[in-house]
Amino acid sequence: MPHTDILTERKNFIGQGGGKTVCCDRDSVSGAVSQRACVYCGARVVLNPITDAYHIIHGPIGCSSYTWDIRGSLSSDDELYRNSFSTDLSEQDIVFGGAEKLTRAIDEVVAKHHPRLIFVYATCIVGVIGDDVEAVCRQAEQKYPLRCIPVKSPGFSGNKSYGYRMACEALMALIRPAPRPAGRLGVNLLGDFNLAGEIWIIRHYLEIIGIPIISTFTGDANYDTLMQSPQARLNLVQCAGSMTYLAGQMEEEFGIPFIKISFFGREDTSASLIRIAQALGDSGLIARARAFTQEQEARLLPFEQAWREGLAHKKAAIYVGGGFKAISLIRQFNAMGMETVIVGTQTGKAEDYELISQLVGPDTVILDDANPAELERFLKEKGADLLVGGVKERPLAYKLGLAFCDHNHERRHALAGYEGVRNFTREINLSLNSPVWSYMGGSI
Amino acid sequence: MTQNLVNLNVNPCKMCMPMGSATAFYGIARCMTILHGSQGCATYIRRHMATHYNEPVDIASTSLTEEGTVFGGEKNLLQGLKNMVELYRPEVIGVATTCLAETIGEDVERYIETFHDLHPELPVKIIPVAAAGYGGSQYEGYWHALRSVVSHVDMDTTPNQYMNIIPGLLSPADVRALKDLLDQLQVPYLLLPDLGDNLDGVHTEHYERLPQAGITLAQISKMAGSRATIEFSLLNQPAYSPGTYLRDTYGVPLFQLNMPGSLRDTDALISLLKDLGAKVPERLRQSRGRFLDAMADSHKYNAAGRAVIFGEPDFVLVTARLCCENGLLPVLCATGARSKELAPLLEADLSDCARRFHVASYQVLDNCDFDTIERKAAELGANLMIGSSDGRRVAQKLKLPLIRCAFPCHDQIGGQRVRTILYDGCLSLLDRCTNALLSQRETGFRQKVYDLYYKAPATVSLLPADQPASATASAKARELQRKTDEHPCFNGCGGQFARMHLPVAPACNIQCNYCVRKYDCANESRPGVTTEVLTPQQAFEKYRYVKSRLPELKVVGIAGPGDSLAEWDKTRETLELIRQSDSEITFCLSTNGLLLPQYADQLAKLGVSHVTVTLNTIDPAVGARIYQHVDFMGKRYTGETAAALLLANQLAGIRRVCELGLVCKVNIVLLKGMNDQQLSQIVQTVKDLGCDQTNIMQMIPVAGAVFEHMPLTSNKEITQARRACSHILKQMNHCQQCRADAIGTLGHDRSREFCQSRLQAADAEPAIVPAATALAAVLPSSSPPSVLPAALPSLPAEPAAAASWLISILARSLISISMITRIIQSVSGNGAGLVLTAPRTAVMARAAANGRKLRTTVCGIS
C-alpha cells in the first residue's frame, strides 16, 4: 500500500507562491511528526542567552537535560548561562507538590552563588500539579536581594510561539522597574541571540556609523545591560517572531518605537542599517550609513561574483523556525542566482507567509509546520539540490542525497552581516559542490 | 550521598524515560513511536538522537494542548495513531506516555482498544509503555519499553531452538558485532531490540522513512517458546525486566549477565553459550588471545590511568570492570540514575585495583549531576574521563581527555559506530583510553621531569607513587589560575587585589619616542616614573613593610622605571630576596622584550608567573619611527636595524615564556598614524606565539618626549580598538597605566604612603594614612594640614574632602597643556578655586588656570 504523504488535516497548511497565503499559527496535528518544540522550549531559547542569569527548570530532568548548553549563543563575560539547573522532580514531588523543593533549590543557589537574577521555568508538570511558582519567586525576592522571575511555560499551554511571548513577559517583569532617563542616543537590538558572535558583528557596524547599542535581547545580555534598555531611543527587532511582542510592550510602556530589521544577506543588512539611521532621523548618521553600506557592498561584490558560478541555477529548499529568517534566505538565494523551490517555517505568521508568497514564484511550495513526510515528498518532487534547516532535518537531506546548510541555534559560524554573507556562501558551496554526491548510488 | 546541593540538579547526568523507550522501539521492525504529551518531548528527543546517530529520527507526538490536558487526550491519541498509520504504514506503534499524560491520568490501554474498535481494518500492533519523565531516567525507560513489548505481543509458546538475547543500550556497531558472534557460534537467536541497522542506516537510492530492519513482531512472539533468555543487565529492576517477565509468565529460563564489555564478562557470555551447546570457533579464541596480548602490551600505561566513568548504571559497571582488569583505576564511578546496587557490585574490583597501586580513595555515586562529578574528579585526581559528550564541559575545565563511547555523542561524529563490547570491542575502547593516557604523558613529561629534577631538585620531593601525574600537573595549572585570578592586571577586573611595583630597574636599553623616565617624581601617574629608585635590599624591606600593612597584597611586580631586564642582577636579586621569605606571592614583570630570550628561563626558575611585554609593532619600518635607538650587546643601533633587532628578540622571548607555561600579556601603545592600522595583525601574531591577552593602551603625551605633540587618543577610540581585536584574543580593558612604584589596588594608588623617606618611622604610623596627612607629604613642610582650610579659602571646609580633591589633581599626570586644561576645566566646575602644581608644570598650569580665574600654587616635593 503506498504511503500517504499529506494528511487531510494538513492540506490547508500547504500552498504555493504567487501571492496566495497558507493556514498558520495553529496547534500541530497529532501524529504528524511536527518539527516544532513546546512552550518551554520557546521561552528558554529566548531567555537562555542572558549570561549572568540562573535558569532553574522546575520540573522533571528531561526538560533540563535536553536544553543544557546546546546552543551557540556567545558571551563576552559570564558563562553562567551554560549551566542547566533543575529541581529534578521525582514521583514523590509530583504527589506532594514541588513548591517547597523549588524554595529550597533557590535557597541553595543563593547560599552557594549569590545570584542577582534567577529565571524559574514552569514545565508541563508544574502546570498540572499547580505549584504556585509565582508565590515562590515573590517570596525569594522578599527574602534575598535579587530578582527572581517566574516564566509561565508549561509545554502544553500553547506552541513554541507562545513560549516566546512568555519569555517577553518575563523580560518585561524584569525591566519594568528600571529607571528611565529620557531617550539616550542608542538602540536596543531585539531578537538576536549572538549565535557565533553575530551581535558583535552588528555592534561593530553600528559603532562605525555612530549608533551605540544600549542593550541586546538577549544575546550576550546581562542584568545590567537589560536594566538600561528602557533608556534607548529606538528598538530594532530582528527575530520578529520572538520579539515583536516585547517591542510592542516597550513601545506602550516606555514610549520606545521599534522597526523590524534583518541582518541576514547583503540586501537586508544594507537596507536595515540605512533604515535604522533614518529612524533615528539624523542626517549625519544616514550619510554615514549609506557610505558604510556602499563601501561594504563594493567589497563584497567581487566575492559574490567569484562564487556565483558554482551556485547559480541550483534549487534551494528552506525549512526554518521563523518567518523573518525564511524571507531573508529567499532574498539571499535570489542574490546568488539560485531558485527557492520550497519555503516552510515552524512558527511563521500570516504576514510572513503573505510576503513569502510574493517573493517566490507560483511553483514554489509553501509549508507551515511541515513534517518529514511532506519535506521528503516536496524535496523529491521539486528536485531540490539543497535544504536549509535545523539539526533534525539534516539527516533527511543527506539520506536523500541533498546538500544541507545548518541555519539554526547550534551553529558555530556567523551568518549575519557582510561577514555572514561570505560564511553563508562558503557553507552552501562546500556542501553543494562536495565531491561525495557524485559517488552516491553506483554498485559493486 | 555527598552532593552538596540536594534540591538542585546542576547539569544533569541523565535524560528522561521517554528517551529510553523511543530508543528501544527503534530496534523493532517497521515500528514507529508516538509520545503522548506536549510537542516538545518528541522534538527534543529527536534532536538528541539525530545528532548522535546521524540518522533521520521520526518520533510523533500527540501534541497535547491546554484542551487535551483539561479534558483528556483521547481525541489527540486516536487522531495521532490514525495519522501515523496513514503517513508511515507501521506494523507496530509504541505509545510512550510522558510526565503530562501520566500526571493527568491518561488511560492509554483503553484508548488503544477504542482505536482498534474504530479501525478494525488497520492491522497495527500498538504497545503502550508508561514513561513519566519523573519516573526514572532513560535507562529505566529503555527497559520498561522492552518489558511492555514482551508483555503486550501475542506470544506463541511452542518450544523452539531460539535463544532470547536482550542487551542494554548498545551502539548499532556493537549490536552488529553481537549478531556476528552469535552467528559464528551457530546460536539461533531472537535479539530484542535489534538496533543494528535502523539507527545506522546504509545509503540507498530510495530512502525508506519507516525503519525496515530490526526484530519483527513474528519473531518477538516466539520469545515465549525460546530455550532461554540472556539479559545483559545486573542492575535493571525486576519490574522492568523483560527476561523476568518471560521467565515468570512462560517459564523461559533467565540468565542475567553483565554486558560483555570486559574480558571476564565476555568470557562469561561465551562460556554460558558453550554450556547451552554452542561451539566456540577458532576465530573467537584468536580474538580473545589478541585481546590478552594487547592487555599485556599496554598494562603499564594503563596503570597510570585514574578514570572518571559516568553514564547509565550497566555501562558504568562493565566499563569500570574493564578498567580494573587493566589496572586503570576508576577513581570515580558515577551514574545519574538511582542505583544503590552499583557500589556493592563494584567494591571488590575497585578495592583490589586501588590496593595494588596504593591509591587511598575512590568513589561510586548514583543520582549524581555533573557539578558533583566535576568537583569529585578534581578531588580524586582523575586524568581521564570515559562516558558521553555530556562530560565535555567538565573535561574542558579540568583539561582531561574525554573518551566518548556512550549516548549521547553530539559534538563528534560516529556515535553509532563506537565499539565497546566483546573482545575486539573491549580492545577498541581500551586502546582509546591507553592512547589518551600516552598522549598526555608524551606532551607533558619533558616539562614535568625538568621541573622535578632540574628546576628545583633540592626543594621538591619525589612524587608519591599513588599520585597520578596529571594531578600534579593540574594542581600546577590550578595554582597558576589562582595567581591569575588574584592578579589585578590579568584577571580582567582589577578587583580588591593589590599589587606593588618595586622600582629597582632604572636603566633602559632602548629609547621609545613617547617615553621620558623620571626617578624623583611624585606627581605623574604613568609608566616610567617613580619617586625614588631602590636597591634590591631596600626593595625587599619595602616589600616586607607593605605586606605587613596591606594584607590584600598578592603581586610583586618589577616595572622599571627603565627596563626590568636591562640590569638583570638587580631584578634577580630583588626577586630572590622576596622569594626566600614568601613562597606564595605572585611575581610579575614587565619588559620591552629585548633581553627576554636571554632571561626567560631564569625568570621561570625564579617563579615569575606573569610577564608583560610592550610590543608596539611587527613592522621594522614602523618601529624605526617609534624607537630612537636600541642598545644591544654593547652596541647602539638605530633606524630599521634597531627596530628589527628589537622585534626579533621580542617575538623569540614571548614564544619562550609561553612555552615555559608563564602567562604572557602584550602591551601595545596605540600610536596614531603609526601602528593603529596594524593592531589586529600584532594581536594575531602574539596570540600565535601563545600570549593570553593584549592591552591596547593610550599614549600619554609627555613633555620633552619626541611624541609630545602627537594627537591624543580618546577613550572611545581605545575601546573600539580593543573591541575590534577582542575576537582574536582576550583584551585588558581596565588598564590604569601605573607608575613604576605603584602600590595598592588598580583603582587606588597608595604609593605615597609607602615611599622610602616615610618608612623611617614606619612602626608608629597607622596602616592607612588619612588623605589630609597624605597631602602634607606633598606640600612644603611649612604648611601643616591643620592650616589648609584657612590658607585656601575656596576649598571645601572639611579638610579631608579638600585634601582628597587636591590629591586627585596631583595624582593625575600634569603632563601636557591640553590635559592640564582638561583637568582644570573639570575641577573648576566642582567649585575649586585653586590649582596646585609641580614646579615643572607651573607655567602651563598657570596659563590654563588664569583662563578660568583660578589661583595657582606651586608646591615642590622634590
From the structure above, extract its key features:
heterodimer, A: 444 residues, alpha/beta, Rossmann fold, 3 domains, four-stranded parallel β-sheet, 17 helices, B: 862 residues, TIM Barrel, five-stranded parallel β-sheet
What would you note in describing this structure?
The complex is a heterodimer of chains A (444) and B (862). With 444 residues, chain A is α/β, with parallel strands linked by helices. Chain A folds into three domains: 8-31 and 311-411, Rossmann fold (3-Layer(aba) Sandwich), CATH 3.40.50; 39-158, 3-Layer(aba) Sandwich (Rossmann fold), CATH 3.40.50.1980; 187-300, Nitrogenase molybdenum iron protein domain (Rossmann fold, 3-Layer(aba) Sandwich), CATH 3.40.50. Chain A is 45% helix and 15% strand. Chain A contains 17 helices and 14 strands. Chain A has a six-stranded mixed sheet. Chain A has a four-stranded parallel sheet with strand order 3-2-4-5, with helices on both faces. The relative contact order of chain A is 0.13. The model of chain A has no long low-confidence stretch (mean pLDDT 94). The model of chain B is unreliable at 458-469 and 757-817 (pLDDT under 50). In chain B, helix 2 (39-53) links the parallel strand 2 and strand 3 (59-61). In chain B, helix 4 (74-88) crosses helix 6 (108-118) and helix 19 (536-549) runs parallel beside helix 20. In chain B, the strands form six sheets. In chain B, strands 24-23-22-19-18-17-15-25-26 form a nine-stranded mixed sheet, sandwiched between helices. In chain B, strands 12-11-10-13-14 form a five-stranded parallel sheet, with helices on both faces. Chain B has a four-stranded parallel sheet with strand order 3-2-4-5, sandwiched between helices. Chain B has 862 residues and is an alpha/beta fold. Chain B starts with 8 loop residues before the first strand and ends with a strand. Chain B has four domains: 17-257, Nitrogenase molybdenum iron protein domain (Rossmann fold, 3-Layer(aba) Sandwich), CATH 3.40.50; 301-443, Rossmann fold; 486-752, TIM Barrel; 771-858, no CATH class. Chain B is elongated, with a radius of gyration of 37 Å. Chains A and B meet through helix 1, helix 2, strand 3, helix 3 and helix 4 of A and strand 1, helix 2, strand 3, helix 3 and helix 4 of B.
